[in-house]
Design a protein that fits this description.
Radius of gyration: 23 Å
Shape: globular
Number of domains: 2
CATH superfamily of the largest domain: Zn peptidases
Order of helices and strands: HHEEEHEHEEEHEEHEHHHHHHEHHHE
Bound molecules: zinc ion
Low-confidence stretches: none
Length: 466
Amino acid sequence: MGQKSIQEVAKNIWEYAEIRFEEHKSARELADYAANLGFKVEFGIGGLKTAFKATYGSGHPVIAILGEYDSLQGLSQKEDTAHKEKGNQENNGHGCGHHLLGSGAMMGAEIAKEYMEKNNLKGTIVYYGCPAEEGGSGKTWMIKNGEFQDVDVALTWHPFPYNGIFSMPTLANYQAYFRFEGKGSHAAASPHLGRSALDAVELMNVGCNFLREHIIQEARLHYAITNTGGISPNVVQPDAEVLYLMRAPKLKQVDEIFERVCDIARGAALMTGTKVKMLFDKGASEYKGNKEVEKVLYKNMVKFDNIKYTDEEIQYAKKFKDTLNENEITSEFGWISIAAGDKWDSIKEMMLKEYIFRGTIPYDENFNRLLPGSTDVGDVSKITPTGQIATACYAIGTPGHSWQNVAQGKSSIAMKGMEFAGKVIGQTAIDILMDKDLFEKIRKDFEKNREEYGSPIKYETNPIDL
Ligand SMILES: [Zn+2]
């Protein structure tokens, strides 16, 4: 069978739209592509069925290139359509562009491998296929289960509506289920005999909503009720469950908030005469990029960022930008204005007037503003020097996790952004493999700033009595 193009791979993964830990076809698609190139593929690594690694070369330096391929629940959307309309994907959709992420990263691995082959370069390129970035922290599990240990430098990227270095620290997090067990009863005839697990969930949420006022500003607390205990008001709900996601700038702070959330769950159980179990779901550390890696990535972004768009592509982006309100279009202005420094005026004008981002946001190595989201790349960044970039794959202003994001996922704009990322990652890997001094500088900088790493996954995944 002939080799598919990397664009076909990305488009197929967009169609599969598989969610966390179920990315069987998506992972195979990428693994087969790598195997056809001559990479050695190992499937089901790090204790995860849909994780894999594809290795080329031997010895140090070991450069890891990280790919993702999971989609988001409920975001099925018709391609290229500038209004919300369900697509052919069963239910889910690539609203975070991970079909591009996995494929662009693979292109980077391919570029580096070809160069190594041609020039007889020593070292190793490992493509890590990482499942469940969305709500599963796949990389954190992979590290806990022994992966990434011999990696010297890690590179990755993420699709966005702009080009720049993804140097911002992100929030560490924990996600855990709280399962309440009460006693079912006839809600009218014998309510006194019932103990409502749904009451417990509601009281826990009330408690946590009050807690918000007394935690640090940057922390985030969100929940979803994953079991309401049934749809009948005439039955005292015997069981109910709520899923909590807790975030803060440092893992230690998440730990403290988590303890207080557990206390609230205990209190809710006590108030309602129910029992509560905690089931730990996932955790991720805060991200910290390596400045020396970021400098090389930036140099290569500027080298390759002269991307040409046709009038048709500009019109395509316009029709999506026209669906956004001013708040959506300007929502990223805050951090970009700081990062861009004295270039901000011209970048702002371009972002307001045009439809596809041009150029690269200037890189400032002292820029340290928090990005209020989380990524499991955080855990990789704790154990090896890591750099990541953002490239423009969508119309300016397109929000993450939106139908507009899914709709543009197979467009030629998305493909150009993906290939831009692949080129930058590939060239950066080559630069590090070629230049021993650069490699040493990166490692030294990492060791100097290294913080102790403890896995955020501290609990067994069986429910624990609280
Ligand atoms: Zn994402």
